[in-house]
Design goal:
The chain is α/β, with parallel strands linked by helices. The protein has one domain: Vaccinia Virus protein VP39 (Rossmann fold), CATH 3.40.50.150. Helix content is 32%, strand content 21%. The strands form three sheets. Strands 5, 6, 7, 8, 9, 10, 11, 14 and 15 form a nine-stranded mixed sheet that branches. A four-stranded antiparallel sheet has the order 2-3-1-4. The protein has a two-stranded antiparallel sheet with strand order 12-13.
Length: 306
C-alpha cells in the first residue's frame, strides 16, 4: 500500500511501534462473525458452524474471527440471520455504550446496521432503538439487516443527524454516534479511502462531527451515556471533536472504560499547538497492530444534571 507522505509524517509522530503499524496495514483482515442470540442459543449456533475454524475475540464472547476461507455470505446461517459479519473493532462502541433492556437508545448514524443489530441483541429486543441515517440508499441496507437479524425493537428514521437533538431533546437513555469520518482506520479493508484522503477532507469531517455530537448530546437524558466513535486516526476528528463538546457543555464528562483483552492507548492531549480539554485523556485509541483489527477511537461521555 502506497501511503501519502503527509499521512506518514502526521502519524509517525504519535502512533506507537509505527513500523509494525505500517506492516499491519498491508495485512488483509480476516472475517469476523457475531452470534445472533435473538435467534438462538450461542452453543446451538456454533454447532451449525462446525466447519468454521473460529478464533474467539477476547473482548466479546459472541464474536469470532474466521480463520479458514469460507464464503460466509453464501451460508444459510447468514441468510437466516443467525450470524452477522462485522469487524471486531466495530463491536467495541456498543459494548462501551452498554445498553440495557427496556431503555430508549439512539443510533444517530446507523446504516448499514451493524451496531444497531448488536444493540438490539444486548437489549434482548426490548425497549426502543431509534436507528437514524441521512442517506436513503444506505437505509435500504439498514432495513434489510434489521429484518434479517430479527431486531423487533427498532424504528428507522431518515433525518439529518444534526437536527435530532432539536426534535427529541433529553429523550434517550443512551446515544451512539459512530460518526462519518475520513475512514483511515479501514485501510486494511478498503484502501480506496486513500483516493479521497487529504487534510482538508479531515477538517471538513471534523466540522460535521462537531455538529452531530452536539445534537447527540442534546438528545441525551441527564445521567445518560453517549458514546462517540470513529474509524480514523486524525486528532481533528477525534480528540478535537470531544474537546469541543466538553468546552461547550460543562455538564459533559468523560468516563474511562476497559474491555478485558482489548489493548488501547490514551488519547492525545496536544496536536499541532492545540491543547485539548484535560478530560480527553480518558478517551481511547485502538490501533490495528495491537489487536489485529481496524483502527478506532472511542469516547464514553456522561451527561450530568445541570
Amino acid at each position: 500500500m502506497q501511503l501519502p507522505a503527509k499521512f506518514i509524517n502526521r502519524y509517525q509522530k504519535f502512533i506507537p511501534d509505527f513500523d509494525r503499524f505500517l506492516k499491519t496495514l498491508d495485512t488483509p483482515l480476516r472475517s469476523v462473525i457475531r452470534i445472533n442470540t435473538l435467534k438462538g442459543e450461542k452453543e446451538e449456533i456454533l454447532r451449525l458452524l462446525s466447519d468454521f475454524k473460529l478464533e474467539p475475540i477476547p473482548w466479546y464472547d459472541l464474536a469470532y474471527r474466521v480463520k479458514n476461507n469460507i464464503q460466509i455470505g453464501n451460508r444459510l446461517e447468514y441468510f437466516l440471520g443467525l450470524i452477522y459479519v462485522q469487524e471486531a473493532a466495530s463491536m467495541i462502541p456498543p459494548l462501551v455504550l452498554d445498553p440495557q433492556p427496556g431503555e430508549k437508545v439512539l443510533d444517530l448514524t446507523a446504516a448499514p446496521g451493524s451496531k444497531t443489530t448488536q444493540i438490539a441483541s444486548m437489549m434482548k429486543n426490548t425497549g426502543l432503538i431509534v436507528a437514524n441515517d441521512v442517506n436513503r440508499k444506505r437505509i435500504r441496507a439498514l432495513l434489510t439487516n434489521i429484518e434479517r437479524y430479527g431486531a423487533l425493537n427498532v424504528v428507522v428514521t431518515n433525518k439529518r443527524g444534526e437536527r435530532i437533538g432539536e426534535f427529541l431533546p433529553g429523550y434517550f437513555d443512551r446515544v451512539l454516534l459512530d460518526a462519518p469520518c475520513s475512514l483511515e482506520g479501514m485501510l486494511r479493508k478498503n484502501d480506496h479511502a486513500l483516493t479521497r484522503w487529504s487534510e482538508s477532507n479531515i477538517l471538513r469531517s471534523s466540522m460535521i462531527q462537531k455538529s452531530l455530537l452536539a445534537s447527540a448530546f442534546k438528545a441525551l437524558k441527564p445521567e445518560g451515556i453517549l458514546v462517540y466513535s470513529t474509524c480514523t486516526f486524525a486528532p481533528e476528528e477525534n480528540e478535537a471533536v470531544v474537546s469541543f463538546l466538553l468546552e461547550q457543555n460543562p455538564n459533559a464528562s468523560i468516563e474511562p472504560f476497559t474491555l478485558p483483552g482489548l489493548i488501547t492507548h490514551p488519547a492525545l492531549t496536544l496536536w499541532q499547538r492545540t491543547r485539548f480539554h484535560p478530560d480527553v485523556l480518558k478517551t481511547s485509541r485502538i490501533y490495528p497492530h495491537d489487536n489485529n483489527t481496524e483502527g478506532f477511537f472511542v469516547a464514553k461521555i456522561k451527561k450530568a444534571v445541570k
